[in-house]
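Trying the structure run again after the queue cleared.
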Amino acid sequence: MNKWRTSQGSINESGGTGALRKSVDLDDEADGAGGGGGGGGGGSGGGGGGGHGSVGGDDVDSYGEDAGLETDESDTEADMVVLDPDHPLMKRFQAALKAHLDKQNEKITLELRDLVMMLEQQHDQVASLKQERQKEEQELNDVRFLFKDTQLEINKERKNCTALQNEVENLALRLFYMTNSKENVRSDISVMKRAAEKVETEVARAELLKQKQDLYVDRLVEGVERLKEEIAMYDAQISAQTEETKAAKESLMEAYMDIESVEFEKDLFQKWNSSLIGMKRRDEAHSAMLSALNQQEQLILTLQTDLEGYKKTILKEQEQNEKLTHILNKTEREIESAKKQMTQIQTKHEALMNEFNTYSRMLYETEQALGRAVADKQLRIAEVLSLRKQIEQEHQSKNKLEDEILERMRAQLTLAKASHYSKQLIKKTRDVTKRLESETIDVENNIAQCTLDIVNVRGRTERLRKVLDVLENQIAEQNAIITKSEQEMVKRNAVIERKQNQVDSMNKRLTQMIAAAGGVELGPLEIQVNSLHKSIEAKNQEVLDLQQLWLRQQSELVRLCQKKDKELVELVALRRQLTILSQKKVRTEAEIEQQHREMCEIERSVRNMRNDIIKLNDLLHKEKCAGEELEQGNILMENAFIAGLQDAELESIQLQAKLDEIKDEKERLLNSLVEAERQIMLWEKKTQLARETRDAVNSEIGQGEMQAMRSEIHRMQVRHSQLMKQQEKMIQDMEKAVSRRDTIVTRGEAQSKLKDRIVTKGTFERQMGEMRKKIKQTIQEANGCDTEMKELREHQQTISEQLEQKQVNCQQLQGALDTMDGDIERALEVKQRNMSELLSRQQKSKYYQQLKDNKYTMMCRSESALEMESQKQEDRLQSLTSIVHRLNSEFPYAQPALRKVTMTLASRSSPLEA
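Done. Tokens:
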């Protein structure tokens, strides 16, 4: 960036004609703002000239004058001029600045396009997820028994989709914020164009703008990194959801297999029950037939047939026993697998507890860090208060110094250079105090932002604690259910083993009865018939008892099978709950990782703030060192000035001694000397008037563009600057009048002393020659001043006409700019309102589509719950509006940034009131 600097020379009052020297220097600077070099130039101009400030400040600079008419030394003084942005020499600078800003604009537009493409990809991914979900719903419609569980999963998927939609809305809001930041950059550009009020204040403003731009670039870089992290998180969530869908499909296939096995077993049980009923009826008919038999052979035949039937039933029972043992082994294997799953769940629970402990420890550490940050904030607030007190003390001391300086100026008006240098020091101290005040305001803003971040982090930690408590309660409930099911499984295994032992004992008894009936040889036929009758009756009774016992056992077996089916159903439900808990675990882990990233961002911002505080401390130290150096320079200049005064006093004593030698000739030439002195006084007045008019004209020439800018931006500041100029001019006139009076008094004293001294002829002639030279010099200077005054008056008229035209143009442009700014703000407000309405209508259309497809799940099942939820939302909205109003009242400078929030809250609250 190029900055033109013009320096003007001063009038050499002792060399003959006063010449005005101008030089133009071109400095190439790599700085982003155009105020750094100007500030340095203004400082050098003020220090080197012994009485000059910058033309861009509040006071008009004047050319330096000699302390007395008897000295022959000349002072060269440089004035710094910051050119107007519309100046022809600034075209290259404006073109380079425009190209730089166009590049920044193109870069931001490319980033916006990338973000829009990313948003479209996210929308496509959401649409693909919706299609997959619809396919899964079509598949799940065939399974009515698992409809409720799948409905819960669908609700969770919908919640995820709404969360993604909210994230998309957040991205849209971020886009909107980025557009606002773009508008802020434009406003910063306009502020940079108008930053030509004061050179020294321009340095501070340019530094602040540069810091804001650096912070804005850092925020953009952090936003890009955050978006990249969110994209990676979304990819991870999509992969996790695909894995969850695969696991859900596998669980569905397992559920299909389990349902088929259960239905097959139910068919077997139904067939078995029908066979039992048929056997019971057949046995009743057989008992009736046995009671009707009267002959022994028929009884023996029936007994044999019954024995054969018993053998068949025993074989069937053995087969059934084998089936039951197979089922028992299967249930045992399932119990073992369930135990393994329980161990895995316990290990996962332990891992989760370890993670919970680590996160709780991290939370404790973050709370400690938060406490330290709060303590640091209190220390910073105390430092700010101390700085304010110091600033007030400095302001009081400044006022005292100004009063003392005014008194010394009244007492020592001959010391023009020292007084002017002290004025420059006072200006610099004022600028330093203003810069310190702006820095303290920035520090307070940073502290307020830190407090807001701390409150947000506390709220998030409290929400995470609540979620963690809910998860722990759910895990405890699931553990209780699992332990209860394990106990019931152990009880069922014991009952099955007991029934198996009873079946074995019955089989042994049956084999013994068969052996007793067929292996014994009897005597006569009558005894055999009697014994057979008795044995038949006994056997019939035993068979009836065994049949009743067997029926009871079969009913018990059916009851146990039904319990086993229920336990299988519960086991499937537990598996589903386990998958749901694993999904919740994945989500909580993702949320915890997000919180961890946010904590890292907060720590990074805290580190950046600490670095900024360190930089501010370094700047304060540098300013303090510069102030000490200036004080030392002031002391050295005072010492040099005192030494010069002492030399002047010695010279005056020598002159008085010489005047004593020419006392006799003084009486003869006294009248001529008085006349010459009168002429000198007249020419001094003329030269003084010429210098004052030339200074005024030059100041108006140098400040024309600046006054146009000031009148365009701050008319009250222009009035204040004019009053300060008048005050400075009156003070300078008073100083010059007092200095002339002092010279007259000193000359009168010298003349009074000459009456008592003897003056020689040689000294008198030498003094007369010097006086003639001075008279010639003053005549030449007066002629040059007259010509310069004529030229300057003509130039002043032309500049005043140009100034009036430019002021009119500036006023017209300012009015057009104000109207355009108002139109842009209204258009942005309408755009934001339309965007919010579009998002709300899209959400409503989505809900209506779900309601049309019979897929909508009501959050509130009853009207009372709906009223409570609506009241809760209204209370939340009212609390947010009250917070925003309080922020607007407490921080008025933040109202433009909070205007959009207030508009959105008003748009949300207006339909509620309607």
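Residues 537 and 543 are 10 Å apart (CA to CA). Worth checking whether this holds up in the mutant runs.
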